[in-house]
Amino acid sequence: MNVDFKKALVTGGAGFIGSHLVEALAAAGCEVAVLDNLSGGHLSNLESVKSRISFYENDIRQLDALEQSAADCDIIFHLAAVVAVQQTIDDPISSTMVNNIGTLNVLEAARKTNVRRVVLASSCAVYGDDPRLPKDESMTPMPTSPYAVHKLSAEHYLRVYGELFGLKNVSLRFFNVFGPRQDPSSPYSGVISIFMSKAASHQAPVIYGDGNQTRDFIYVKNVVKALLQAGQTDQKTGDVFNIGSGSRISINRLWELIASLNGQQSEPVYHSARGGDILHSVGNIDKARSILNFTNEFSLEQGLELTLEWYRGQMGEVGSGNGEV
Length: 325
Ligand code: UD2
Hints:
The protein has two domains: 7-176 and 218-243, Rossmann fold (3-Layer(aba) Sandwich); 180-216 and 246-282 and 297-314, UDP-galactose 4-epimerase, domain 1. With 325 residues, it is an alpha/beta fold. Helix content is 39%, strand content 17%. Strand 1, helix 1 (16-27) and strand 2 (31-36) form a beta-alpha-beta unit. The protein binds uridine-diphosphate-N-acetylgalactosamine (UD2).
């Protein structure tokens, strides 16, 4: 995909979503700076582009480091964050320093270095457990975790910087993103990463509750396309967009799909429902469709197939001592 900016900074660019974005930017001929403190990201995620990017091992809590890496950039994609919701509950103060002060630093760095645009990775978590479906951007957000508060307030900081300083910006509320490089190692990791690593080693997964709960899963490369399109939208500064597939499937069905792609017959093990889980979630993506021309190029099944292939490859590498899964 062509882009109309020459140099981009990606905060959190060594992470799961960030590294896919960095690859796409480099493929589009864009000069890319990556700032990442490697707390969740890995340099190995950037292996295929390492000779074509400038990497800064730094923290978004350091304004001077951000200013240095933002120099000459036309745009900042701000993805760096404490993304584990539980971590923001266990340690709200230090996670706020990263997610909120860090975001303010990104905006200040943009202002001071004359970066023209910022795109923020926000989250469907801002909707909280409002039972109305699908979630659309006109609903009043009702965060239920520090993480969701961080993302909502970050959206507002962007809007305010647009109004006060003319900094063009857009926030994208991602639904449940999945794909290669997503870390399956914590009980709070995305369900697809956990199911994939089980499938790759032919083990049965655990399903919490009856498995009829539903989610809107979106393949990471569809998210990258949304980020690139959002980076080129001027007319909607300060606006927010849902980025999902626009449809939902149950966790039971999800495992059936993965098991069948893997030629596996393992029955899941059922445990009691996870405290605080919402039952259903799906985003209305009409606004992104009409304003950002957003479409899901990869279907759920295609995404699952590509993801399974990657996790299987990682298992092979683990066997030979090189993998991270
Ligand atoms: C996401 C966030 C969560 C919180 C929530 C707010 C992630 C990974 N999780 O949770 O922290 O912000 O949104 O709405 O970003 N499940 C299983 N077996 C497993 C793992 C999960 O059955 O091994 C279930 C889980 O109980 C849930 C569903 O799968 O019902 C999806 O879980 P998830 O953690 O991937 O995503 P979600 O939307 O519940």
